[in-house]
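pasting input
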Amino acid sequence: MRNTMTSTFSHRILGGLALTATLCLAACPPAADQKGDKKPGGDAPIAVTTIEARSNSTVKGTATFTQAGDKVKVVVEVSGATPGQHGLHVHENGDCSSPDAKSAGNHFNPGNAEHGAPDKPAHHAGDFGNLTVGQDGNGKLELLTDQIAVKPGTTSVVGRALVLHDKPDDTTTQPTGNSGSRVGCGVINLQPASSPPPAADSSGSPPPSESSEGH
Ligand SMILES: [Cu+2]
């Protein structure tokens, strides 16, 4: 009887120690271990933004800009928007601070072009056309364009703002497309090198514990 209790007790202690060690592995290392990590995504620079509601809307969303050679793949996803078409542009100022997002300034237009549709010869580099939102309030736009860049240069969108409008962009009215108030806005920043998806984790650290029951 006594032996059994002792044995059970020490098992608990050992179990507790092991658990502590596991927790520490998961929670403690950020400072030392990750410094030498290379960018898992290779050299393709990626810019990201979080779209926040403006003009009393309920819009939120995200966007990524991935440099692929001379082109940039743009993926924008929003939720909480009104169903229908919404003009979408990169604006010149990386400043979404004002409640109506007018702080973002005019369309990003490094080529000094006329406003237009992104698939027409003449348009601002920041003209992304329209993003279509469904009845559920969600919408997505994907675009491949050589008019902007993520890497440094006159056409770089880093430090600019992505703006979603209340109404459709008619792609003809100068210089705005007449797409109404600015219901979503996000400042575009370079994605920090250390934060891309946790998939390729091969920095030589011990394999994370096998307990899949965790969080
Ligand atoms: Cu706009």
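fyi The pocket of copper (II) ion is lined by residues 87, 89, 91, 107, 163, 165 (CB under 6 Å).
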